[in-house]
Amino acid sequence: MSTETLSDDTIQRRLDDLDGWTRSGDTIERELEFDGFNEAIEFINRIAPLADEADHHPEIFNVYNQVELTLTTHDAGGLTDKDFDLAASINEEV
């Protein structure tokens, strides 16, 4: 998988195919709300193996039933295919 940063046009095209994700500079982000704390933690636990398998780990922020995810490829200094591929896998768990 390429770790080259993506062009703005490619980023926008990839974002158009991802429900719930938005761009913020060199990151993509998604905010989710669950019925309660346990459901939020269960979601985090479902996506943890996906991140490990991809060897690409999101920043995760959780308060009660809220989960905020941020993806970027730090080694590349921006957004790469790795970010969008993991975001698509995460979306399958929502």
Provide a concise account of the structure shown:
By secondary structure, the chain is of the alpha+beta class. It is built from three helices and four strands; from the N terminus they run αββαββα.
Spell out the blueprint of helices and strands.
Blueprint (H helix, E strand, L loop, with lengths): L7 H9 L5 E3 L2 E7 L3 H18 L4 E5 L2 E6 L9 H11 L3
Antiparallel strand pairs: 1-2, 2-4, 3-4
Helix pairs in contact: 2-3
Index terms:
globular, four-stranded antiparallel beta sheet, Gyrase A, domain 2, alpha+beta, 94 residues, 4 strands
Description:
This protein is an alpha+beta fold and 94 residues long. The chain has one domain: Transcriptional coactivator/pterin dehydratase (Gyrase A, domain 2). 40% of the residues lie in helices and 22% in strands. Strands 1-2-4-3 form a 4-stranded antiparallel beta sheet, covered by helices on one side. Helix 2 packs across helix 3. The longest helix has 18 residues. It is globular and about 40 Å long. The protein starts with 7 loop residues before the first helix and ends with a helix. The mean pLDDT is 96.
How big is the Rg?
13 Å
Under CATH, the homologous superfamily reads Transcriptional coactivator/pterin dehydratase
Distance between the termini: 24 Å
Mean pLDDT over the full residue set: 96
Say what oligomer this is: single chain
Tell me what portion of residues adopts beta-strand conformation. Answer: 15-25%
Main sheet, how many strands, which sense, barrel? Answer: 4 strands, antiparallel
Q: Structural class of the helix and strand makeup?
A: alpha+beta
Measured as a percent range, the helix fraction is: 40-55%
Strand order across the biggest sheet?
1-2-4-3
Looking at the structure, what is the overall shape?
globular
- At CATH's second level, what is the architecture? 2-Layer Sandwich
CATH topology name, in short, is Gyrase A, domain 2
What's the CATH class label? Alpha Beta
State the order of secondary-structure elements, H for helix, E for strand: HEEHEEH
Q: How many helical elements?
A: 3
Residue ranges: pLDDT <50 for 5 or more in a row? Answer: none
